[in-house]
């Protein structure tokens, strides 16, 4: 059977994500880390870890956003996915998640906490089906969707990619 985006969306009951694409939470730990044991950027306790399935189809993208935790990305099916990371020092890093065994493509990648990032399937790829694991666990209180004008002011050298990958 050929895997398609529609089959994966139905099989895993994926729903639209605010940043773009489709997702479903697949794991949330039973225990929480108390707020006093976390860095100051967290205002309350957080689950030890969370995980989701995430699917992006060609022509769609995950808009620039940031979270307060490291996010580990895992490749599952479909084609390669580009992840664009704006580091605090102003550098733009483009990583490719996928199943090609080359120096520039990996099955697993990490987006550091607090960095702005976006993603999209590589040109010509019908869809990318991936997973994301976050620790301390993801909560929408830690999610910030970028404003293109503000992000361009902060990273003017990357205006074109910011304007293309913001909603």
Strand content: 35-45%
Fraction of residues in helix: 10-25%
Ends distance: 35 Å
What are the segments in which pLDDT stays under 50 over at least 5 consecutive residues? Answer: none
Tally of helical runs: 3
The average pLDDT value, as a whole number, equals: 96
Main sheet: strands, sense, barrel? 6 strands, antiparallel
Structural class comes to: mainly beta
The CATH architecture:
Sandwich
How many strand units? 14
Secondary-structure element series: HEEEEEEEEEEEEEEHH
- Based on CA atoms alone, the radius of gyration comes out at 16 Å
Structural description of this entry:
It is built from three helices and 14 strands. The protein has a single domain (5-164), classed as Jelly Rolls (Sandwich). The termini are far apart. Strands 1-2-5-13-7-11 form a six-stranded antiparallel β-sheet, covered by helices on one side. Strands 10-9-8-12-6-14 form a six-stranded mixed β-sheet, with no helix packed on it. It has a two-stranded antiparallel sheet with strand order 3-4. It has 167 residues and is mainly beta.
């Amino acid at each position: 059977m050929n895997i398609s985006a529609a089959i994966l969306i139905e099989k895993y009951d994926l729903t639209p994500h605010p940043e773009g694409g489709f997702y479903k939470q697949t794991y949330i730990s039973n225990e929480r880390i108390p707020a006093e044991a976390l860095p100051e950027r967290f205002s309350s306790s957080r689950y030890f870890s969370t995980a989701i399935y995430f699917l992006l189809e060609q022509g769609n993208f995950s808009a620039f956003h940031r979270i307060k935790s490291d996010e580990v990305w895992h490749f599952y099916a479909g084609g390669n996915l580009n992840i664009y990371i704006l580091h605090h020092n102003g550098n733009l890093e483009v990583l490719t998640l996928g199943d090609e065994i080359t120096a520039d493509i990996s099955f697993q990648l990490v987006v550091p906490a607090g960095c702005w990032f976006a993603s999209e399937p590589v040109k010509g790829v019908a869809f990318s089906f991936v997973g994301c694991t976050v620790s301390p666990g993801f909560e929408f209180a830690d999610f910030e969707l970028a404003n293109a004008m503000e992000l361009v002011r902060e990273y003017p050298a990357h205006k074109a990619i910011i304007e293309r990958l913001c909603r």
